[in-house]
Structures are given as structure tokens and as C-alpha cells.
Amino acid sequence: MTQNHAVRVHPSADRLARTDQLAWAIAEVAADPVEVPDDVVDMIINRVIDNAAVTVASLTRTPPSTARAQALAHPYAGPRNGATVSGVDPATRVSPEWAAWANGVAVRELDYHDTFLAADYSHPGDNIPPLVAVAQHTGRDGAALVRAIATGYEIQVDLVRAISLHKHKIDHVAHLGPSVAAGLGTLLDLPPEVIFHAVGQALHTTTATRQSRKGEISSWKAYAPAFAGKVAIEAVDRAMRGETSPTPIYEGEDGVIAWMLDGPDAAYDVPLPAPGEPKRAILDTYTKEHSAEYQSQALIDLARSLHHERPDLTNPHNVTSIVIHTSHHTHYVIGSGAQDPQKYDPTASRETLDHSIPYIFTVALQDGVWDHVASYAPDRAARPDTVELWQKVTTTEDPAWTERYHSSDPAQKAFGGRVEITTTGGEVVVAELAVADAHPLGARPFAREQYVAKFRSLAAGVLAPDEIERFLDVAQRLPSLTAGELAGLTVVAPAGLLDTVTTPEGLF
After folding, report:
1. Please, is 74 exposed, middle or buried when counting C-beta atoms within 10 Å of its C-beta (0-12, 13-18, 19+)?
2. Which residues contact 252 (CB under 8 A, 6 or more apart)?
3. What does R_g of the chain's alpha carbons equal in angstroms?
4. Are 100 and 83 spatial neighbours (Cβ–Cβ below 8 Å)?
5. What local confidence, expressed as pLDDT, does residue 219 receive?
6. Interatomic CA distance for residues 143 and 138, integer angstroms
7. CA–CA gap between residue 249 and residue 206 (Å, rounded)
8. pLDDT for res 436
9. How are beta strands 267-273 and 319-326 bridged, if at all?
10. CATH code assigned at 321
11. pTM of this prediction exceeds 0.90
12. Beta bridge partner(s), residue 396
């Protein structure tokens, strides 16, 4: 049974026992050698495939190419194995923290993999690249990697359920650093004492403001989770060597909660698995059918339905206004409530546009589809009729949708909204959708077939056909992979593809 760990700020004079600290509770969950249930194993395989799909689609984009160049400048030549870099022949090995860096950026670049939203938000698939890198480097097998991924998802989801970061403008990767450190503790069978210090160091080095997701959003949005994975690996390395962490990192009077989150009077209940309880949190997460911020998924599906049902609404001359009634988070983060003029700028970056629901809804309404490349193309964003219609789209918070966003009941939890379109003739068209079609409760929930189809679709024309089949075979055998076979848990680009991208020289 899940148990709540009570967390509050303590003055130094309390001398809060290590075993009463949240970082210790996380460490104990990571060190608990429970079996991974079959349905969790199945979903882990799905998410490994999902990550690979979006990685393939981003191999030649600039941020992943830059990160890959940095990683390849750090080859590994020590007594262990090193780790593979996405797109590169697996015979080439780099230091695992740099592999996690490059592969993490490739996974995150298109904003196209899994999500969990509660008190905070997250992309828990970001745990996978650093865990794979260290598993390859240290000679762990597929079963050990499965256990580690289950832990990473569990800890990140549990923290996201309980502790809001975005309310205090702290980037959500502050929950990812501890979850990766915990997952690595599981992978390496580390004792709680070591995991405890790794979690503390990982949290301390991953707390940053969320300006990375505000205003003119830059390529750093793709790098931030990869940075968390990289520094978590380094934290584990130090902790294994006996180095300690700021303690108590969460509860201290000068700690994260007191000065970065809800302050000295804060109190949280973090739900964590009880001893012996399986780690099942991955089953509460969901992936994306569309390459855009998760709160836009249901609204894209709604817009493409309206495209077919009411094609007249795609013409700005027929529309007076489009108002999207939605949750507080959607309104203030990707809606007009953010008060970011960049969300209405046809010259804005791709990263900005994928955090602009006015833009996304407009293009999905006009096109009836959403494409990870074409829908963000500069000429698509600048099309005059799109710009005209786009400027008529606003969002507003609806308390009912905010309540559903934060509901703990999976049947009520929703991230969609209600759209009211007023035509120039005075008609008001109303439509709503609670969850995306691909959501477990949606019209077309994603299962293995859909994950494989997503991989095939994004890999077509990028990977060789035999490489597509090779990867899918390896991924679907994940629980039984030997340590030697784990090197095959990567995608290999055809000869010459990666050479089509050049990056400026840096320091390395």
C-alpha cells in the first residue's frame, strides 16, 4: 500500500534524523528490490520505443547535433564499457554522462514523448537516457535496466503529485535530478546511504528558474532535462566515492522548500510505495500523438475534428473570436494568460510556438492534421490567413477545468477544454474535449501497436529498413537482454546522414 511521507521545513536545531528526510525515503524506495509487474514491464518497453521514435526524428536538428558533437569529444577509454550515442555506430563509446547528455537532448528536442501532470508537470521518459547510458557503461542487463526505469518513473511521478515547482517559477527538471539518481541507485544495487547523498546532490544542482519555458523559448528547453540526467550521473559517481550532500536538502531551514518553494511554513505529503510494494507509477503517465506541449493534445484533436465538421471556421473572414476555456495551467503557461507577445509572433522560434495554444489550435483547425515539421515551418506560421485567425484566439481560465486538471481521480483528470467560436454572422459554435485521443481514456488509446507505428512513421526515410526492424526486435526483448546485447538499445543512422549537419566549434 502507498504510504505518504510528510515533509516540512525544520530549523537546524531540530537535527532532523536522516531517516526522517524525504531524500532518505526516496533512497529506501530505490533500494527496495521488488519485482516489476508484467504490465509495468510492457509499458516500459513502449516508452523505450517512444523515446527512440522521437530521437530518430530529431537526429539532424541543431540542438541534438550540437549535444552529439559535445559527447563525441569525450570518448571513453577506461576499464568499463562506455555508452552509445544515438545515431552513431555502437562501437563508438563515450563517457556515460555525456551519452546521457546527447541522447537526452535528442529525446526532448521535439516535445513529443511522454508526460505526467499533477501538482507539477513532467516528462518522465527523460529518465530513460541516463539510465540506459549507465547500464551500458557498467555492464547491467535488460532486467536491471527495467527495474531502474520503474524506479525513475515512480520517484518523478510521486514528486510531481505532491510538490509544485512551477508555482514558484522553478523548472520541472528539479524533480528529474532526484528521480534519475534514485533510478541509478536501483540499477547499481546501491545502499540507501549512497542513494541518499546522490539524491541530495542531484536536487541541489538541478534547481533553476523556469525562464527556459517563458517568453522567447530557446533551444535550452531541450537541454535542461538532459543536463539533469548528466549531473545526476555525476552525483551518483561522487556519492559512490563517499562524498556527501547538503542535508537536509528538502527540509532544511535554508533548503529548497524554505527558499525556493512554499516557504518555511510549507507542508507536503509525498506518496511513495511502501516496502515491498511494486513501482507502478509509469502506468499513470501518457504519451503524445502530436509534437506539442501536452495540454495542447486534446485541443489539437478537437481542432482537427472541427476542421472536418465546420470547414467554414478555417477562414478568418468568417470568425470574430475563438475563446478556449481551459485550466489555470494551460491558460497561464501556453495560453494568452502568459501575456507573452511571442505566442502570437509568426517569426517566433519553434520552441515558442509549441508552447502557444493560440497558434497550435489555429493551424490544427486550418489543416486538420498536426505534423512535427510542417506545422512549425516558418512559411506555415507566416501564412497571412493563419496570422489573421491566430490573432483572434484567446484563452481564459475555467475553474471546472482547473479542478479536473488537478483531480486525483483518473476518470475525472483532464487536460482539455471547451472552445467557443463566434462567427461574423453571430453564431456561437461550442465544442469540448476532455482528454486527447491517444490518452488511456481517449478515443484511440496508445498501446504497443501505436507505439510501434509511431516509431515506424518517424523512422521512415531516416533509418534503413533493416535498422528499424533490428531496433524494434531489441527493444521488445528488453527484459531478457544480456549485458552484451544492451549496446544494441540505440538507433544507428545510415552512413553519411549525420555528416549532413555541421556544428560550430566550441571548447571541446
Report:
1. middle
2. 9, 10, 12, 246, 258
3. 22
4. yes
5. 85
6. 14
7. 12
8. 96
9. unpaired
10. 3.30.1330.120
11. yes
12. 325
Q: Are strands 393-397 and 319-326 parallel, antiparallel or unpaired?
A: parallel
The whole-number pLDDT of residue 408 equals 81
Structurally, the chain folds into a number of domains equal to 2
Q: If DSSP states are collapsed to H, E and C, what string results for 269-284?
A: EEEEECCCCCCCHHHH
**Phi and psi at residue 419, to the nearest 5°:** -110, 130
Give the residue from 326, 100, 56 showing the smallest Cα distance to 233: 100
For residue 212, the model assigns a pLDDT of: 78
Last residue within a domain, chosen from 260, 284, 308: 284
Report, as ranges of residue numbers, the positions in the chain whose pLDDT lies below 70: none
Question: Quick check: 114 and 93 in contact, CB under 8 A?
Answer: no
Nearest CA to 210 out of 259, 177, 166, 176 is that of: 166
CA dist 247 and 12 (Å) reads: 10
Element (H, E) at 57: helix 38-58
* Of residues 222, 51, 188, the one with CA closest to residue 128: 51
Q: Which pairing describes strands 2-8 and 428-433: parallel, antiparallel, or unpaired?
A: unpaired
Cis peptide bond upstream of 178, omega within 30: no
CB 85 within 8 A of CB 94: yes
Q: Would you state the pLDDT for residue 200?
A: 98
pLDDT in tens, 376-413: 999 999 999 999 999 999 999 999 999 999 888 888 99
Helices (H), 382-427: 384-390, 399-405
Stretch (H or E) spanning 136: helix 128-138
Full domain range(s) for residue 423:
294-433
Taking the C-alpha atoms of residue 443 and residue 451, their distance in angstroms, rounded to an integer, is 16
How far apart CA 154 and CA 258 sit, in angstroms, is 25
- In three-state secondary structure terms, 4 is strand
Residues 121 and 166 both lie in one domain: yes
Tell me: the pLDDT tens digits for 318-355?
Answer: 999 999 999 998 999 999 999 999 999 999 998 899 99
455: in domain: no
Instruction: Give the pLDDT score at 312.
Output: 98
Residues 268 and 306 in one domain: no
Q: Using CA atoms, how far apart are residues 411 and 397, in angstroms rounded to an integer?
A: 21
352 assigned to some structural domain: yes
Length of the chain: 508
User: Grid coordinates standing for 347?
Assistant: 517569426
351 DSSP 8-state letter: H
Domain boundary among 412, 433, 454: 433
Return the bridge partners of 87, or none: 492
